[in-house]
Structures are given as structure tokens and as C-alpha cells.
Specification:
Blueprint (H helix, E strand, L loop, with lengths): L1 H11 L15 H4 L2 H14 L7 H6 L3 H11 L17
Helix pairs in contact: 3-5
Length: about 90
């Protein structure tokens, strides 16, 4: 249901809060640097058995794709947009 209502509306503003990894495509140059580092930070913390800094950080990494979406939008000196494309089909 969210793909019918939420995603198209969010897309109008150029920011989609959650883009499921299995159904998303990104430009690699958009991911390079801080967005990818922030996204992978949760994996590194998990692999090293590091305790989370607090409830806020633990909650952030429950939905790490939200971190990636946010980091892409706020990337310094860039103007990336996230879009929902309903007509895309798999061949």
C-alpha cells in the first residue's frame, strides 16, 4: 500500500525515506564517500561486536536503508534526488 500512496508523494519532493535495497538502483558516484561510510558503519559495528552508543544509534541501524537515503540527500556540494519510478519492469 505504501508504494501506491507514500512513495509517489515522497518522490515529488525528491526524497524517499526508505528505498528497499532489492528494488533500488543508485549511481555509484553518489554513494562514494560519506553516504557509503555511514551505511556500512552498522555492519562494521556488528562485525566487531561493538556496543551501540545508545538507543538513538541502535534505532538508526534497524533500518539502515534510511541512513543511506538521508546521506545521499544531504551530501555536501551535491544535489541528488531520490525518485520512485512505477513503470519500471524486470525483464
Amino acid at each position: 500500500m505504501s508504494n501506491i500512496l507514500d512513495k509517489p508523494l515522497e518522490s515529488i519532493f525528491g526524497y524517499i525515506s526508505v528505498l528497499p535495497g532489492a528494488f533500488s538502483a543508485y549511481r555509484f558516484r553518489a554513494l562514494k564517500g560519506k553516504p557509503l561510510e555511514a551505511y556500512l558503519k552498522g555492519e562494521v559495528m556488528h562485525a566487531n561486536n561493538e556496543a551501540k552508543k545508545g538507543v538513538f544509534e541502535a534505532n538508526m541501524y534497524l533500518a539502515e536503508d534510511r541512513i543511506l537515503c538521508f546521506e545521499l540527500i544531504v551530501k555536501k556540494n551535491e544535489s541528488w534526488k531520490l525518485k520512485y519510478v512505477k513503470v519500471v519492469k524486470n525483464k
